[in-house]
Input
Amino acid sequence: MFARSKVLFFPIIVCCIFVFSYSSLQLLRDEKSQLSRDQTPVIQTLPEDVLKALAVEFKGVVADALLLDIGARLGTRLERRGKKFVTVKKKHDWKRIYKLFRNCQALDPYFNQTFILAQGWLPWSAKMVNEMEDILLIAAEKRPWDWQPFRFIGFNSYFFNNNLGKAGKFYLKAALVPHSPPFLSVLGGRLALKGGVTETAIMLLENILQHSTHSDFERKQIENRYEALKGSLIIEKAMQIYRKENRKIPSSVEELVEKGFLKHLPKNPYGSKYCIKKNGKVYFDELNCSDQ
Output
């Protein structure tokens, strides 16, 4: 009986020791300065190739450890002040955190949680849009079945850098990935047109249609955008000739036909008319043509 009691009490004693040890460790951590908390082992920030060589076959494990370390550095923390706990915003060393993210993605480029977590912090809180693109390109190279890395680059280019042409191209690159949602093609085509890279958008859409994995309804949406962009490109080229000869932008697309620069206007698959804005941009939808 006594022996059985010892067996039962032993795990309880071990748990109590663990709890008291953990509490003591937390109090010790609270007494340390913010600087000491933010220190990073030198090995974590070594160049990617060196870190890969050191990690050998344990790259995935090392990447997981780095990601846990990154997570511990982000956000807020609880500090004990007297008898109360208060939430304190951490001071972030973004250059170091970016380096940890990049090393983590390089060590295990197939793990999607790394670039998803980085996307939630680096462009928004650290304003590191270009640095985030480097991480996403690593993921895109190693995850050719995943449309998310290219989609994030497209979003960042549009939202943070206001680069519509680049945003459109990357949305269309995302649309090339098999089984990607059709909205990528539609949105990418619109952004590419606004960003002045219509020919690039048409070539990418052609590629998408040749290797389409979409349903008939989704394919029809992509075909409509493709035909609308081709019509826009025809008008753009005629307008460039008109502008060169007359040193001005035509007042309407109809003027291009009236003065012989086009035999007829291309068919618009959306049933609306093409238009030329005062800045020389050609559009295929009433939404952009109504406020001329």
